[in-house]
Design a protein that fits this description.
By secondary structure, the chain is an alpha+beta fold. The protein has two helices and four strands. The mean pLDDT is about 95.
Length: about 90
């Protein structure tokens, strides 16, 4: 399993390339970790772009969101992880 951390400053095209490369290399799924609305926005855009990158390979990417808790600067925050699988 590959884990990709995305922030609000992440470039969605570069994240999309990382997602697509994971599937080209044989991964069954990728976990994307985000904290904050801006990071979720960049991650969703990246998944959408990555779908176009892997479509010629006959893959369709599906995303399942989930909440999880993380500790940042000694404070507990709720984050969102996006599990991306190929069909």
């Amino acid at each position: 399993m590959d884990i990709i951390k995305v922030s609000s400053k992440s470039v969605s095209q570069k994240v999309a390339g990382s997602i697509a490369n994971s599937f080209r290399e044989g991964s069954n799924f990728v976990e994307i970790q985000t904290v904050g609305a801006g990071a979720v926005n960049q991650a969703i855009k990246a998944i959408s772009i990555a779908r176009g990158y892997v479509a010629p390979l006959g893959l369709n990417l599906v995303c399942t969101p989930a909440f999880y808790d993380v500790i940042i600067d000694n404070k507990e925050k709720t984050a969102i992880k996006l599990i991306v699988k190929s069909e």
